[in-house]
Amino acid sequence: MSQEKIPILENSNLSNVLSSDLETARNAVLKEAKIFDHSKIKIKGYDFNKGINYEEILDSYISTGLQASHLGKAIEQIKEMIKIRNESFDVEEGIDINFPYPYGRKKRKLTLFLGYTSNLISSGLRDIFRFLAQHDMIDCIVTTAGGIEEDLIKSLQPSYLGDFKMDGKELRLAGMNRAGNVIIPNKNYCSFEDWIMPIFDEILNENKILTPSKLINKLGEKINCEDSVYYWCWKNNIPVYCPGITDGSLGDMLYFHSATRSKSLIIDVVEDIRNINTMAIRSNKTGTIILGGGIVKHHINNANLFRNGSDFSVYINTGIEDDGSDSGAKPDEAISWGKIKYDSTPIKVFSDATLVFPLIVAKTFAKNLKKN
C-alpha cells in the first residue's frame, strides 16, 4: 500500500504568514536558556529501590523541591546554629561572660531563641520542647500564656486525642474543651487552680514583685515534674518570656486570686522587656526558631532588632502575608525592619509544626546529643 504524501503549502502568502507565526512561537516556547547564578542542586527524590532508610529519606528532602526543600534548608540552617553555639567562645577582657539575667546564664558563641504558640504545647510537641530544655540546647524561650499553663496542667492531668469535627455544644455540656483535635477536660483547670493558688498566696505574703519570667521560673520549680518544659528551664536556668501572660488560664487564675484577696499580685513586665532585649544586644550571634506566629514571633524578632537583626532564622507556620499580619509575614519583611540581618539566609517552612519539627529535631538537636 503506497504511503500518502503530505501536501506542501503552495500559497506563498499563506506560507509566509505561517512561517512568521511559527518563528514567533519558536522564539516564545523554545527561548534559549542563558547561564545565571542559581542552585546547582538537581531535583531528585528518594529511591525506594534502595530500601527504607529514614536518614537518607530526610536527606533527600533538600533536593525534592517545594516545601520539602524548605524543610531540608531549615535543617541545614539549624545544624549551623548548633555548630556555632557549641564552638569555644572567649569574650573580650572586661566583658562579662554571663548575661545579666538570668544570673549565671553563660554566654555562648550563638544565643538560640525558641518561640512557640500554645497549641503546640497542647500537642505532643511539648515533649520535644522538654527534651531541648532538659539538655540545655536553647538559651531563651518565648511563648504565650497558654504555652505556659498547658505544660503545667499536663503535669497535673492529661489531655486526650479527639477530632476536629466534634460538636462544640456537646463538648460544652460535657465540660470538655477542644483545641483543634486535642480535648482538655474542664477538671484539668480545676486541678490547676487548686495547685497554683497557694503559690500565688506565698508570693503575695512575701511582698514580692515578680516579672512574668520570674513567675514562670518559680512555677517550674514548684511543679517538680520531669515531664514539664518549665521544670527543666528552672533547673537549667533558661529564661522563659511570656509577653501576654494574662491571656489564658494563667490570667484567669490571677483574676480569681485578686478578686478573693485583699490585695493583688503585681507583675512587672518592664523588667522582662529590658532583659530579653539585653540578651539579644549582648549576644555574639543569634539564631531564632519560631513555630507559629503572633506575639511570640514578633517578640523574638523585635528583641533581635536591638542588635540589628538575628544571624540565623527559621520560621515554621501556615500564615500567609497577604493580609499584612505579622503572623504570615515572610522573613524578608523582618529584614526590612532590621529584625533579621539582610545578609543572612532565613528560611520559612510552610507547614503545621507538628508535622515537621520532630523531623528537624531528629536531624539536628537529637543527633548532636548522641554525638556528644
UniProtKB/TrEMBL annotation:
Gene3D superfamilies: Deoxyhypusine synthase
Keyword Ribonucleoprotein in annotation: no
Enzyme Commission (EC) number: 2.5.1.46
Pfam families per record: DS
Keyword field: Hypusine biosynthesis, NAD, Transferase
This protein's record includes keyword Lipid metabolism: no
CC per GO annotation: cytoplasm
Reaction(s) this enzyme catalyzes, per UniProt: [eIF5A protein]-L-lysine + spermidine = [eIF5A protein]-deoxyhypusine + propane-1,3-diamine
InterPro entries documented for this protein: Deoxyhypusine_synthase (IPR002773), Deoxyhypusine_synthase_sf (IPR036982), DHS-like_NAD/FAD-binding_dom (IPR029035)
UniProt pathway: Protein modification; eIF5A hypusination
Superkingdom: Eukaryota
Reported cofactor(s): NAD(+)
Gene Ontology MF: a single term: deoxyhypusine synthase activity
Similarity section: Belongs to the deoxyhypusine synthase family.
PANTHER family reported in the protein's UniProt record: DEOXYHYPUSINE SYNTHASE
Protein name, entry field: deoxyhypusine synthase
Organism: Strongyloides stercoralis (Threadworm)
Lineage: Eukaryota, Metazoa, Ecdysozoa, Nematoda, Chromadorea
